Amino acid sequence: MSLAAGTKLGPYEILAPIGAGGMGEVYRARDTKLKRDVALKVLPDSFAGDPERMARFQREAEVLASLNHPHVAQIYGVEERALVMELVPGESLKGPLPLETALNYARQIADALEAAHEKGIVHRDLKPANIMITPAGVVKVLDFGLAAVAQSSDPSNPANSPTLTISPTRAGMILGTAAYMSPEQARGAVVDKRADIWSFGVVLYEMLTGKRLFEGDTISDTLAAVLKTEPDLTQVPVKVRRLLEACLQKDPKQRLQAIGDWRLLLTDVQPQVTAPSGSRLGYVAWGGAGMLLFALAALAFVHFRETPPERQHIRFQVAPPEGSLRDFKLSPDGRFLAFAATNGIGFKLWIRALDSLETRLLTPLQIANPDPYLFWSADGEYVGFTVSGKIYKIARTGGSAVAICDLPGAGFGFAGAAWRSDGTILLASSAGLYRVSSSGGTPSKVTGESAAVPVWLTAERFLFSTPNGIFASSLTGAKPSLLLPGASSSVFVPSAKPGLPGHLLFLRGETLMAQPIDAEKAELRGEAFPVAERVGHLGNELLAAFSASATGVLVFGRGVSTDRELVWLDRTGKKLQTISRPFSQAGNPAIRLSPDDSRAIMPVAEANGTDLWIADLNRNTLSRFTFDGSGSGIWSPDGRRVLWAALDGNYYLRSADGSGKDELMFKNPTCSCWPNDWSSDGKRIAFAERTDKTQYDIWLVETDGDRKPYPFLQSRFSEAEAQISPDGRWMAYVSDQSGQNEILVESIPMGKGRRQISTEGGDWPVWRRDGKELFFRQGAKIMAAPIRLTETSVESGKPQVLFEVPVNTRFQVSHDGQRFLIALPMEGAAAASPLTVDTDWRAGVSK
Predict the structure, then answer these.
(1) What whole-number distance in Å separates Cα of residue 340 and Cα of residue 347?
(2) How far is the C-alpha of 503 from the C-alpha of 524, rounded, in Å?
(3) HEC states along 625-675?
(4) From CA 457, how far away is CA 567, in angstroms rounded?
(5) How far apart are CA 839 and CA 819, in angstroms?
(6) How far apart are CA 786 and CA 800, in angstroms?
(7) Angle at Cα 257 formed by Cα 253 and Cα 261, nearest 5°?
(8) Homologous superfamily in CATH for domain 1-87
(9) What residue spans define the domains of the chain?
(10) What is the 3-state secondary structure (H, E, C) of 4-62?
């Protein structure tokens, strides 16, 4: 998990985050014993139970500890699951540099590699980002995290190398960075120190020219260049060309064999020997160089007779960032992957270049938002996202987030956005489709149909998803037409060849399908065909776990498991009983326990939407209660009826057994309201309203009289999750007036007293039936605060941690406060499986 400033690991105090990589997050920390700053590389919690990853972590510690060299970042020790390393000041290596400066740095890099190679250690990921230049001009080579002791065992055993051959039938992972990989590493072969020599040559070229030697629009283009393209060295000084040619031989047998010999191949440097000029060593050095030049000439002749290289089709996997993955989106050019992951308190936005091992934290937004939605600008320079009732954009390279607009329809049911090349953003929600300029403004309605996952086909035509399928529409106001029944979450991929139809990627069940489509006419062509199997969802039945670029790159995964089971836990978190059959929940919606603890109302997700079901906790049965997509309801005080919020904007009463007719209880002030609680004396109903200002207010309804709703708490802050105390005199609720969500208790009517119960954040308050405790959630912790209520005051003790649950989990408490009813993920269900990257899913289409 992410560590806040001030957190201590042994004697080390966290000061600030530095970055993130394949092995975890890196922090600047203070060694309180030796009074020096260090770098801590912390393994994520999600990896701690993985023996293979832990073994790799231990191996990294041992490898780094064995490299005591002035040009290698030193390891000071291991603390818990963190490597304690030298904090290297300065900047990453960048070009172009003067020739002598570049050769000075090259000498220091080569010395570091030579020291590693002498111990049988191969770096495997040498690149400018892993080379620091201190203010004194000293080179420090960082991150031997991919290093492994070179072995001479069977190359068919993938365990001998972290680089695996990738194929559509075998999940694998490329370790390394595409632009700096050696050809054998890109192919998945066993590598040795000669792979580092190749990377050394690539880095030296970049030092001299300021440009990457191998680069393409996509990962596959870059890898194809590494495998097939002979480097053009005309831009580098003559002095180093022979050296670069020796380092950049695609056949490792023809490559420079030892990094310590690099200076022998500088044109104006003679071999440094003590024997006479005619000695055996001199002849060997020059003879080898002559043979090398002959080999280069032969290879060049063959190269120029070759046909252009084919696009490389590779599959590999990437691990999502720590936390519960809520969304991911691939940039239009297929080079970058954006992630949104939540820890239950807020979510973080991450960026990863697919030709790199590093996942970079773009912005840590600690704002509660269970379903952030990501989308890219057409040029790939900005990432759009939703949080706290607004739509924001942030530059891919980082910086401050800029608000674009408030979510349309008060944010009710927001379900996606698409950013056109001219800056027009199409927004989808339960209230309809809207459009707004990326520079800001007020969204204007396009259609009134409930919609999700909008997709631009042309400047006028677009698609959107509903539970019934994928529809085509346009900005001209034409009536939407059903294009693909029973499908969802489409992505349009234009044709790679002019004049041919593009493809529509969509999900049908758990199969990712591709369908040729004429974008100008929004008409399907040909037959649909499968692209990938076992593709899941991301906590929403309309948000599928896949993303594709216009260049043919595809990312997909199993998504977030929605399989749940109702369980009773005791006050220590120990499971007492599983009391319902498995069911599906999108996200973590509210469950409501009946007054006698015998039944529970809970939202259940199905293919056509979410409805309320009632679980009989004694008989272990589930029965459906609503049929119109409603997902919100509470019990009457006697437990005989259910008050539920219908999609027509009204509240209805129905017998809990489903019999009889619905009774209209009252009308919502707006459509953005959800019932929270019904007082035990039956006199008041509390509900939350989401306002046009993208915040929540608390309203009350008196059940006697005209039943007209009135506001209880309205302010410039957000107040929600109202719970009436058992004596009916007090209201517990969540407020963000302090800058974060906290639990407060307010008198009913207002004016007799107010008290903050939580001390370090909290949400989802639940009263014990005798009013002597108030339970709430603080991140992943279930808390209990002792309470003493009088007619005019409320007193509370220090909240205590009872146990931990998965983040963002809601719960209910038995009348005696001893048991907790929670919908937990099924045992063995993965919260966030690795994502598969396919560098060119269209490669097999023509075949």
Answers:
(1) 6
(2) 9
(3) CCCCCCCCEEECCCCCEEEEECCCCEEEEEECCCCCCCEEEEECCCCCEEE
(4) 46
(5) 50
(6) 9
(7) 150
(8) Phosphorylase Kinase; domain 1 (3.30.200.20)
(9) 1-87, 323-555, 668-805
(10) CCCCEECCEEEEEEEEEECCEEEEEEEECCCCEEEEEEECCHHHHCCHHHHHHHHHHHH
The sheet with strand 641-645 has its strands ordered as: 633-635, 641-645, 650-655, 663-667
Q: Which residues are catalytic?
A: 125
Backbone angles phi, psi at 293, to 5 degrees: -65, -40
292, 685, 723, 782, 801 from 776: Cα distances, Å: 72, 21, 11, 6, 10
Torsion angle (degrees, nearest 10) of CA 286, 288, 271, 243: 110
Q: What pTM does this model have?
A: 0.49
Backbone φ and ψ for 510, nearest 5 degrees, come out as: -110, 15
C-alpha 174/C-alpha 169 separation (Å) is: 15
* 1-87 shares its CATH topology with 323-555: no
Output the six-digit token pair for 475. Answer: 């900005």
Contact assessment for residue 724 and residue 684, using Cβ atoms and an 8 Å cutoff: yes
The CA distance from 380 to 130, in Å, is 25
pLDDT digits (tens, 9 = 90+) for 322-349: 766 788 999 999 999 998 876 544 578 8
Q: Does domain 668-805 have CATH number 2.30.30.100?
A: no
C-alpha span between 357 and 438 (Å, rounded) = 31
How far, in Å, CA of 836 to CA of 819, rounded? 41
- For residue range 596-642, list pLDDT tens digits in order: 999 999 888 665 557 888 999 988 888 888 887 677 889 999 999 99
Domain boundaries 323-555, CATH class: mainly beta
> Which two structure tokens, joined as six digits, stand for 602?
């809970």
